[in-house]
Amino acid sequence: MSVVSGLAAEIYDTELGYETGPERDSEVTLISGWVDANIGVVNTYLNSSFSAEDLSATGHLEERAITKELYLSSYYGKQSRNVLRGIDGASSQLDFQTLREGDSVITRTNKNQVAQNYRMLEEGSKAKLKDLVHAYNMYKSEPSQVYGND
Q1: Mean of pLDDT values over 29-35
Q2: pLDDT beyond 60 at 141
Q3: What b-and-e string marks burial along 101-129, b requiring 16 or more CB atoms within 10 Å of the CB?
């Protein structure tokens, strides 16, 4: 297992995971690909030049936490868009919330509320990401330039 898949497994197991076996492995592979593709975004936030392999299990805990929060923000935004895609009328599903006939009641989930909940999760994740990045840049990152005898 590569370092990136270790980080991807950590993200899945601690934040999203409930599957085991092949389902878990495919999700970890997807997250691993996302981490590989978005390491530049992490570097932009952190004013650094990490590679995906630099995020090893024995160090860089702050960077791993920031990468995890960046993934969660992206995940919640994507889930919100997927729910909204189903609401916009593109699908040919019946549009009802509750059907009643006699003693029988059928209630569907309110997709607007689900999309709103994902959006709230995304906003919370972005706020946490902003705080993590601020703390990292304030206390952890090295200056990019030193002038004089400093």
Answers
A1: 91
A2: yes
A3: eeeeeeeeeeeeebbeebbebbeebbeeb
